[in-house]
Amino acid sequence: MKGLMRILVFGGTFDPPHRGHAQLLMAAAKRIRPDQIVIVPAYQAPLKGKPKANSKDRLAMARLGLLSSLPLRWRKICRLDAREARARRPVFTVETLGALKGAELHFVCGQDSAVSFPQWRDPSRLKSLATWWYGARPGASARPPAHFRRVPGRFPSISSTEIRSLLALDRDCSQELFPAVASYINKRRLYGKEILLVLQSTLSPIRYEHTLNAASLAESLARRHSADPLKARLAGLLHDAGRRYPPHHLAAYVRRRRLQAPEKAAILASDPLLLHAYVSADLARREFGVSDPEVLCAIKRHTLGDRRMSLLDRILYVADAACLDRAHASAASTRALAFVDLDAALKRCVAEKIIHALRREAWIHPLTVSLWNCLAPL
Fold first, then answer.
1. Mean pLDDT, to the nearest integer, of 246-265?
2. Could you tell me which CATH class the domain 204-375 is placed in?
3. Would you put residue 105 in left (φ > 0), alpha (ψ -120 to 50) or beta?
4. How far apart are CA 184 and CA 189, in angstroms?
5. 89 — phi, psi (to 5°)?
């Protein structure tokens, strides 16, 4: 390969690109000292699901967060290669590297991607097409194949998946994202920002903060108990969407939309606020475009419960009752219990809800009583 142009190829989904990506790219450039740097955002990584942002947005963010962040000496020789992003299909790395023949190629990726190398298309040919480099991730135990070289340096333990979760929960990502990328995400309302804007404009500040806390706990519990964390987070974000309305408006909404609710007449007469779960599910479907029956069911059941509750139903019920903003004395211990024994936490939440209603001498919905009777022998 002596005398050939040395090209550093930096590929990935970049959904979104973050400071860890940029640090790895700069460290690799210092070590490899390329004649050219090529950043290749994927349309869809073959071993991953569909990206959350489209390829046009990810190309723009890669330009703002990777290319623009490089020191001038490296920026002068760097280009953004859109061939994969514009292909409108998953493109295999072996195709991209094959198209860059006639150069000394150095492919750089993160440790997780490097570990999955044996599952890539045609790994034996890939090894012959380039020299392979990876950036070590703190705490990662799995090692890449022996032909990978390690890029010197320590890189932050952040991932695009974690950042998307933080963004969807309206958390601060200034330490993970470059300002230009964060501004682009806000402008384009990516990664759940559209939902957050609606909730923030329709809910009280206290209710909005509760929504974020419930969604965060639901997502964490879903990861712990092998449920879908994205479904849990979405259900948590929308579980109180109906609380934009006061009780008498909830009653009017249910009548107007002819929504079904168990013991609806009794709820209308005794405690119309209980209807917010059914209104929230209807808003999730109509206004926010949610069609997943599991998510909609969990939203409906998060207040009254049901004799038969799915894993997602139970997660949301507990997350709503025991999230960070709940002030009752046992909230913290119930949160901790939920990560160990979800059903025990559910039983405690139902018991506390009934005790609270009895203290207020309030009407208790038959579904809640029925749920308690199912749980009591546990």
1. 96
2. mainly alpha
3. beta
4. 8
5. -160, 160
